[in-house]
Structures
1.
Amino acid sequence: LLESQDLQDSIKPQKVEFHSLNFNTTLHWQPGWAREARDALYFVQYKVYGQSTWQNKDDCWGIPSHVCDLTHETSDIQEPYYGRVRATLAGVYSNWSLSSRFTPWRETVIGPPMVTVVHSNKSITVKLQAPHSPYKRKRGSKITMTNYYDLLYQVFIINNLLDEQYRVLVYEGKDKVIKIQDLRPGVSYCIVAKTYVPMLDRSSAYSSRQCTVL
C-alpha cells in the first residue's frame, strides 16, 4: 500500500496553468517528479468558478500529452474558470492538481496586429489588422479582438541607419490605415506595431518587422 501511495504522490501533475493568446486557451501541466511519470496518462476537468460539479474534457481523457485545448470550454470570456488534472500509471491514480483561477477577458494575452506596408516616394502607408479570436460569427468569419476590447494601435518606425532598439512611436489610435509623411528617399525604414488595451494597461508584443526602402 505504501508503494502505491508513494507512486500516487510522485506522478501527481505539477504546475497546472492556463495559457491563452487571443482567447485561444490551453491548460498546461508538467509530469510528476517520478522517473516513471513520463509514461503516465492524464485526465482533465474544468468548471466555472462557483459551480459545484466538474466537467470532464472528453478529448483530454486518458491522454499522454501535457496540454489540453479548452478554448471552446472557456468561451464565456468574463467568467472565471478552473482546470484540474490527475495522472494514472500502473493502475494507480494521483490526486487532482488544480490550476489557479483564470478569467479569459482579464488574462488572455493579446497579440500584435498584422502589418502591411506600402510605400511611395516620400511616405509610407501602414495597414493594420487586429488579431482574430477563435470565435466565429454565424456566417463563419472569425471575430476580431476589437469586438471584446477597446484596442489602440501603436505604430513605431525604425530607421535602419540607427540602432535596432531606437523605435520611435509615430502613431497611437484606432485608425487601421496610417500615413507617415516626409521620409527620406533612399533610406530603409522598418515598421513594427503593438496593440494596446488602455483599460487593462496592457500592450502586446511587437509585430514582425515590415521594412521598405523609399
2.
Amino acid sequence: MSSFEEAETEETVTCLHLTFYHPGQAEKMMFRCLDFCQRQQLRADDTAKFGRDSSLCGYSLVDTRVSRIQFSLQFYRKLHTSEYAFEIKNLSKKTKLTVNQTELGYLNKIDLPWRCIICFGDYQILAEIQEGEAMDYFETHLHLAEAPILQERCLPSLQPVPENGVSPSFPLSQGKSPTEIDENEM
C-alpha cells in the first residue's frame, strides 16, 4: 500500500465567512485589528466574540460606539443530527442587533441562517456558512466590502405588482400616484 492509501481521511472544516462594511471605514479604520488575509481556526468550544475590548474579544473593532462585547457566535451541533450551526447572541446592553431584520435585544440569541446580514449601528456584516464535517474546530474567514452590503446584494424590489401580474412600463416615482380602479369598470 502506498502512503496515499494509508493517509488519514481529510475532514472538511465548517467555515464562517464574514464580510464587513461601515460607511466610515476608509477614514476611521475601525477594522484595522481584524485579519483579512487568512482563515482563523477556533476550537469548537471557543466563542467568537466581537467588540471594542481586545482583551475580551478575538475580533476587535476600533470604534468607541461599539460595545466592549457587541455580540458572540457559538459553534454547535444540532440535537439528533450530524449538522453543525452557529448561534448569535447580542451582548450589548445599549445597541440592538438585527439578523435579517430579526431584532435581538440584550442577551437574545438565535440560530444564524446559512446566509444573512447582521447589522448594528452603521455596521453591516454579511455572514455565510460553508458547511464542513470537522467537529473539533471551525474556521472564520474575514472579508472587507467596498460598497454597502444591503444595497450590493440585490434585495428584492419593493415595487408593487398589480393583480393582473403586469408591471407598469413607467416608474411610479414620476409624480403620478397610483389610482384605484373598480374591477367592474375594466
3.
Amino acid sequence: MGGRLTRVFRTFNLESRARREISKEKPTPAPRHPTSRLDELADHPEIQEEIYRKDDRLLTLLKDVYVESRDPPAQVKVGGGEHLPCKQEEKRLTKLGNLGDLDVKKVPKGKISIVEALTLLNNHKLHPQIWTAEKIAVEYSLELKEVNSLLEFFIPFAVQEFPKETKKAI
C-alpha cells in the first residue's frame, strides 16, 4: 500500500519537471589559467621559431657524450641440475576423524586442528587430573608453555538446561 502512495508522489507532474530541468541554461565552465592555453603559442611565431631552432652549441656538446654500457659477465651456476634440499615439516596424523573427507588428515608437529583443540579442552575440563598439561603436550606434540596458555585462556562452552520448574520461577 505504501509503495503505491510513494509512486504517485514520484510520478506527479513528472513531464513538466523534466522539461523544466532540460530547458535550464547549462552552466558555463570555469575559466582556464592563461598558461594552460596552447592557442597563445600559435599567436606568437617567434616562440614557435625558438622552439624548433637547432642550437649548434648544444648539438656539439651532445655529440661529445659517449655512453658505453657493458653487461656483467654471466655467472655459471655450479651443479646446475641439483636443487638444495628444502626443509620438510614433520607432520603427524590427527587423533580424530569424524567428518570423513572434510577432516584434516595431517597436521604439522607443534600445531593442532580445531577438532583436536576442542577435544583436548573438553577432556581437560571434564577430567583435569587425567588430562594434565604435560600429558596433553606429549600426546599432541606441543610445547608445555603453549598448552598452559591454551588451557588458561580458552574455555569450551558449557550448555546448561534449566528444568521446567525453574523456568517458571524465572
